[in-house]
């Protein structure tokens, strides 16, 4: 279950609870409250799994970029070998091969930068969502704990 949904349910439970007159305390369904907290504990690992999936996706993208760069380099080297075997155009072949190799390296670096940027954006978004959820959970716990504290003694 989505952690955000669970936080919304916890907030709804809090908002629908009955206020105890003349106090800052509320009465709520303890079983429902604890059930939501248990679901949240289960849900947080799902958010961590999402982060791991993003990292795995980054690794796949990098592997594909590396494979593509390797293929391009192999093609460039093969082409360079073919062209340099001819004495008349050997210099032109060398220059062309160097350009192809440089372009392949540039494309591989760009693919790596793009993959890194994607992962940073995705993880940053996930971090923000997790921090929001954690803040809401902590606020809910504090509110409930505050309900159970005895009122301060009256000074007469």
Concise structural overview:
The protein has 156 residues and is an all-alpha fold. It has helices at 3-15, 30-84, 90-147, and strands at residues 18-19, 26-27. The protein has one domain.
Mind explaining what this structure looks like?
The protein has 156 residues and is an all-alpha fold. The chain has one domain. The chain has 3 helices and 2 strands. It has helices at 3-15, 30-84, 90-147; strands at 18-19, 26-27. Strands 1-2 form a two-stranded antiparallel ribbon. Strand 1 and strand 2 form a beta hairpin. The longest helix has 58 residues, at 90-147. The radius of gyration is 30 Å and the shape is rod-shaped. The model has no long low-confidence stretch (mean pLDDT 86).
Please specify the SSE layout and strand pairing.
Blueprint: H1 3-15, E1 18-19, E2 26-27, H2 30-84, H3 90-147
Antiparallel strand pairs: 1-2
Helix pairs in contact: 1-2, 1-3, 2-3
First-to-last CA distance: 51 Å
Main sheet, how many strands, which sense, barrel? 2 strands, antiparallel
Low-confidence stretches: none
What order do the helices and strands follow?
Answer: HEEHH
Radius of gyration: 30 Å
List how many beta strands DSSP finds.
2
Fraction of residues in helix = over 70%
Strand content: under 5%
> What is the molecular shape?
rod-shaped
Structural class: mainly alpha
Q: How many independent structural domains?
A: 1
Average pLDDT level: 86
List keywords for this structure.
156 residues, two-stranded antiparallel sheet, mainly alpha, single chain
């Amino acid at each position: 279950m989505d952690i955000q949904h669970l936080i919304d349910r916890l907030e709804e439970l809090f908002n629908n609870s009955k206020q105890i007159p003349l106090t800052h305390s509320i009465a709520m369904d303890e079983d429902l409250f604890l059930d939501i907290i248990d679901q949240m504990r289960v849900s947080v690992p799902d958010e961590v799994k999402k982060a791991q999936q993003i990292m795995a996706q980054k690794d796949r993208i990098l592997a594909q970029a590396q494979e593509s760069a390797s293929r391009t380099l192999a093609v460039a080297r093969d082409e360079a070998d073919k062209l340099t075997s001819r004495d008349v155009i050997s210099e032109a072949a060398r220059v062309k091969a160097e350009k192809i190799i440089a372009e392949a390296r540039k494309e591989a670096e760009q693919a790596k930068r793009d993959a890194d940027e994607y992962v940073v954006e995705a993880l940053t978004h996930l971090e923000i969502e997790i921090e929001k959820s954690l803040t809401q959970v902590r606020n809910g716990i504090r509110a409930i704990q505050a309900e159970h504290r005895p009122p301060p003694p009256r000074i007469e």
